[in-house]
Write a structure and sequence with these properties.
The radius of gyration is 25 Å and the shape is elongated. About 5% of the residues have low confidence. The chain has about 525 residues and is an alpha/beta fold. The protein contains 14 helices and 18 strands. It folds into 2 domains: about 170 residues, Chitobiase, domain 2 (2-Layer Sandwich); about 260 residues, Alpha-Beta Barrel (TIM Barrel). It has an 8-stranded parallel β-barrel with strand order 8-9-10-13-14-15-16-18, surrounded by 4 helices.
C-alpha cells in the first residue's frame, strides 16, 4: 500500500505525493501538552490494553512493546504542502511538537493518506511500532480523527499503546443542533463547542438561526428582518472555516412555513389568519406569493455562505394543520390547494407543495434537503419528495404524529433527534426535562427514534437507513441558563451521544468509569 505523505526511514515504506495546496492553517487555541521529558525507553512490555478515549476505538490489535509518547526530539511528520497540513499543525501545536516534511524517524508521529484503505473517508489506522506512531486513512477526515485519538490517549494514559487501531464511525452523521434564534451565542462560544465536538469525532453543527424570536445572520437581500444581536457574514465565514479545519459541516436552517415570526414582524401582510381573523404565531400565509419569494431569496443568498452538503428546511409545527378542520378554518389556503393541485387537494397538500418547492430549490443550489418529521404527512394528493432527509424529533404532536417505522418503510433516510433523549430545552417547558448523559449512554441508540423503544425491524435501522443523530439545544426560555451553564449542561450528554453514534455496540465502560474518563479528557 502506498502511504502518501508519510515516508519513513529505517525500513519504512511510502513516498510523499504531490497534492493540491492545503486549506488555511489550523491554529490550536486549547493546546494540550502530552510531551514527556524524553522518549519512551526501549524496554519491552507485555501486550497493552486499548487506549482510553471518547468515543472508544472499535478495533485494537495489541502488540508487545513500550508504545509511544512524544519526547524532546519528536516531530509531527506530514507533507506540509499537501492536504494534511492543517491536521499536522493542529496536533503538533496541541502536543508541543514541531512539524516537518520528509522521512519519519524514531520518536515521530507521522500522518499520511492511504487511498486504498477500507472503511470510508472517516476511517483511520493508527499503528504504533518501532518507536514511532503512524496515522493513515483514505481521506483527511479519518487522519484527523486519528489525531484526536492520539490526543486523548496521551491525556488519559500518558502514551499510545503498542499495536494497531482500526477505527471508523458507525453512523455518518453525528453532531449538535444549536438554536441561536431564540438565544444568541457568541462566535467564541460557538467555536469552543466546535473544538469540543471535534475531539469527540462529531461532524455536524446545524444552526437554527431563524424563528419567531429573532433572525440572527446578516442579510443583504432582506436586511429588514435581521435582529440584534446577530452574526455578520464574516463571522459566519469564520465559523465555517473553523468547521472545515475540524471536519465539521455547518448546516443552515431557515424554518418555514412556521417559525417565521421575525419575518412576519417586518412583513405583517404575510401573517396567517383564520376565517375569523385570528392570527397564528410564526406561521405565514403560504397562499401569498411574497412568502415563498422571501424564503427563496434568503436561501439563494445564504447558499454560498454555507458550502456544506446539506440545507435544513424546517417544516415543523405549521399551525394551520393543528386545528380540527384546516379546510374550514383556512378557506384561503384550501382554495389555493385546489387551484394548485386539483379538486381533491387539501391544506396539507399545499403545505407539502411548499416543502417540495423549497427542497427543489435546495437541490438546485447544490444542497441535500432535510426537514423535521412532522412536515411529512400521511396520505394526501401531494407526497413529500423522497430525497428529503427526515429529521425525526417527536411523535407527541397529535395532529401529525407518525411512528418512525412509517418513514423508514416509505424508503426514507432518517436522522435521530429523539426529543425524549436528545433535546436540551432551556427552562424545561412543555414537559421537557434536561437530558442526562447517563440515560443516553445506557438507554439510547440510533434505533431509538421515538420514546425509549427501538425500531423493532432491524432491517430498517442500519446505517444506510438511520444515518446518524444530533443533540439539540433549544432556547425556548433563553434566560433560564447562561451560555456557560449550557456549555456545562451539555458536556456529558454530548460525550455519551458521541460514544453511542460512533460505536453501535455496548459501551465498554460503566457509566461511572465513563464520567471519570470524560473528566480526565476534559470533554
Amino acid at each position: 500500500m502506498t502511504t502518501l505523505g508519510c515516508q519513513q526511514t529505517e525500513g519504512g515504506q511510502g513516498t510523499p505525493g504531490t497534492h493540491s495546496p492545503a486549506r488555511p492553517s489550523a491554529h490550536a487555541t486549547t493546546a494540550t501538552s502530552a510531551r514527556s521529558p524524553s522518549a519512551v525507553p526501549p524496554h519491552r512490555t507485555a501486550a497493552a490494553a486499548p487506549p482510553r478515549t471518547i468515543p472508544s476505538v472499535r478495533d485494537f490489535a495489541a502488540a508487545s512493546g513500550p508504545g509511544w509518547r512524544p519526547g524532546d526530539d519528536s516531530r509531527v511528520v506530514a507533507d506540509l504542502e499537501g492536504p494534511l497540513a492543517d491536521e499536522a499543525r493542529l496536533i503538533a501545536a496541541e502536543l508541543g511538537l514541531r512539524t516537518t516534511s520528509g522521512p519519519a524517524r524514531r520518536g515521530d508521529l507521522c500522518l499520511g493518506l492511504a487511498p486504498k484503505e477500507s472503511g470510508g473517508g472517516e476511517a483511520y489506522t493508527l499503528k504504533v511500532a518501532g518507536g514511532r506512531a503512524r496515522i493513515t486513512g483514505p481521506a483527511e477526515a479519518g487522519v484527523f480523527y486519528g489525531t484526536r485519538t492520539v490526543k486523548q490517549a496521551l491525556r488519559s494514559g500518558g502514551r499510545l499503546p503498542e499495536g494497531v487501531i482500526h477505527d471508523r464511525p458507525g453512523r455518518a452523521q453525528r453532531g449538535l443542533n444549536l438554536d441561536i434564534a431564540r438565544k444568541f451565542y457568541s462566535v467564541g462560544w460557538i467555536e469552543a463547542r466546535m473544538r469540543e465536538m471535534a475531539d469527540l469525532k462529531l461532524n455536524q453543527l446545524a444552526l437554527h438561526f431563524s424563528d419567531d424570536q429573532g433572525f440572527r445572520i446578516q442579510s443583504t437581500s432582506h436586511p429588514e428582518i435581521v435582529s440584534t444581536p446577530h452574526l455578520t457574514k464574516d463571522q459566519v465565514r469564520q465559523i465555517v472555516a473553523l468547521g472545515q479545519r475540524l471536519h465539521i459541516t455547518v448546516i443552515p436552517e431557515i424554518d418555514s412555513p412556521g417559525h417565521l415570526g421575525a419575518v412576519i414582524r417586518a412583513h405583517p401582510q404575510l401573517q396567517l389568519r383564520n376565517a375569523g381573523g385570528t392570527t397564528f404565531q410564526g406561521s405565514v400565509d403560504i397562499s401569498h406569493p411574497a412568502a415563498a419569494r422571501i424564503v427563496d431569496d434568503l436561501m439563494r443568498e445564504y447558499a454560498p455562505l454555507f458550502p456544506g452538503r446539506w440545507w435544513h428546511l424546517g417544516a415543523d409545527e405549521y399551525l394551520a394543520l393543528t386545528v380540527k378542520d384546516p379546510q374550514a378554518s383556512f378557506p384561503k389556503l384550501a382554495a389555493a390547494a385546489k387551484r394548485e393541485y386539483g379538486p381533491s387537494a387539501r391544506v396539507q397538500d399545499l403545505v407539502t407543495g411548499w416543502l417540495n418547492d423549497r427542497a427543489r430549490l435546495a437541490r438546485q443550489l447544490g444542497k441535500r434537503p432535510k426537514a423535521w418529521n412532522d412536515g411529512f404527512f400521511a396520505g394526501g394528493v401531494v407526497q413529500p419528495a423522497k430525497n428529503i432527509e427526515v429529521e425525526y424529533w417527536t411523535g407527541r404532536l397529535k395532529e401529525t404524529a407518525r411512528q418512525p417505522e412509517e418513514y423508514l418503510k416509505e424508503g426514507r433516510e432518517v436522522v435521530n433527534l429523539n426529543d425524549s433523549f436528545l433535546y436540551y430545552v432551556l427552562g424545561q417547558p412543555g414537559g421537557f426535562t434536561y437530558p442526562t448523559g447517563e440515560r443516553i449512554y445506557e438507554d439510547w441508540s440510533p434505533a431509538v427514534l421515538r420514546g425509549s423503544t427501538p425500531v423493532a425491524d432491524k432491517s430498517l435501522t442500519g446505517p444506510d437507513r438511520i444515518l446518524g443523530a444530533r443533540f439539540a439545544i433549544w432556547g425556548d426560555r433563553p434566560e433560564a441558563q447562561t451560555p456557560a451553564q449550557v456549555a456545562q449542561g451539555i458536556r456529558l450528554p454530548l460525550a455519551a451521544l458521541a460514544q453511542r453514534v460512533w460505536d453501535p455496540g455496548k459501551p465498554p465502560l460503566s457509566w461511572s468509569d465513563f464520567t471519570r474518563l470524560a473528566e480526565r479528557l476534559g470533554v
